[in-house]
Amino acid sequence: MIPPRLIYKPGSLKILDQRLLPHKTAYLKVGNAKETAKAIKDMVLRGAPLIGCAAAWGLPLELTFKRPASWASVRAILAEAVRTIKAARPTALALFYAADRMAAKAETYLARQGAFSAKKYKRLTALLEKEAGAITGEDRLACAAMGKLGAGLLKKNSIVLTHCNAGALATMGIGTAVGVITKAHKTGKIKYAYSCETRPYLQGARLTIWELQKGKVPSALITDNMAAHLMKTAGINAVIVGADRIAANGDTANKIGTYALAVLAGYHKIPFYVIAPTPTIDPALRAGEKIKIEERSSKEVTFINGRLIAPRGVKARHPGFDVTPAGLITAIVTEKGVIKPVTGANILKNLKKTL
Ligand code: MRU
């Protein structure tokens, strides 16, 4: 079993510290929006859907911790908390989706209130706790639905490859891409799964292969530069990844290295699947070049486990994500269905579906 990722109690959020996995299970306790945002920024937790859920819990936490005396100060507290949370990481849309949805929920409540009272303020906090719970519950259900739909796309005896961590650790449910793999494994469809180590942050080596091992999926870890060779020689017949943000035309931002895998999959005529819940789709962004790519510290490239591996003083780049053009994606699976072929019109149709 993968340990719980987030444990909320009024006044505190315990976050499974993914920086210590797989060798140590420990939790970091946060008590307000600033601490929640810092935990997101510092990668205590990561993965687009999970970032969104943590962001949502950050707002009731902030209200529990503050003691305002007017609705004007409540609005100011909320606005500042939303701003802080949104500044944590730029690429995953789930973070912005959750923060905006929580802010809208609060505003609907505030617009109906007369004079301020501590009792009404408590009610607002409870309302936001309920909304964060709803976001979390929806993510869990979306993962289950995508697992089923994605597994349905795979052939018996599939040999699959995944990148980064799009598993339970990246969500509140069974995961997106890894959820598909574990679900397909349960129905006997997976012969073998490969996980790329995912330089420089090693989400694949530390998290995904651990999840696959725990799920008893026959699997092996590879370094990122082995992917071409294995696509050519190991019978890989599906590449399955998650996503952080999908533009209106289907261009998809995911962990750095995903684009290279999509190009390789195209060359080897291997289907390339993106598994992502609808809060990942950004209809306001026409195409992928508009997606903001997080540039992380170069130290994450030049150091491994606190040890400098490159010449002292060397410059290094660290874009955390890249964008795969829609044309290289065989299908996008959301909780609402399978988008194939990946076109703007089909994405819109999927978004409009009701569950
Ligand atoms: O930097 P991370 O670890 O937050 O990046 C995670 C990824 O890129 C995942 O593939 C993506 O969020 C999909 S998670 C279901």
What does this structure look like?
The structure is a single chain. By secondary structure, the protein is an alpha/beta fold. It has two domains: about 5-145, translation initiation factor eif-2b, domain 1 (Four Helix Bundle (Hemerythrin (Met), subunit A), Up-down Bundle), CATH 1.20.120.420; about 150-350, Rossmann fold (3-Layer(aba) Sandwich), CATH 3.40.50. The protein has helices at about 35-40, 50-65, 70-85, 95-110, 120-155, 175-185, 205-215, 225-235, 260-265, 300, 345-350, and strands at about 5-10, 10-15, 25-30, 160, 190-195, 220, 240, 245, 250-255, 270-275, 280, 305, 305-310, 320-325, 330-335, 335-340. The strands form four sheets. The chain has a seven-stranded mixed beta sheet with strand order 6-5-4-7-10-15-16, sandwiched between helices. Strand 12 and strand 13 form a beta hairpin. Helix 1 (about 35-40) packs antiparallel against helix 2 (about 50-65) and helix 4 (about 95-110) packs antiparallel against helix 5 (about 120-155). The longest helix has about 35 residues, at about 120-155. The structure holds 5-S-methyl-1-O-phosphono-5-thio-D-ribulose. The site of 5-S-methyl-1-O-phosphono-5-thio-D-ribulose has 17 residues, from helix 2 and strand 9. 5-S-methyl-1-O-phosphono-5-thio-D-ribulose (MRU) binds near residues 48, 166 and 254.
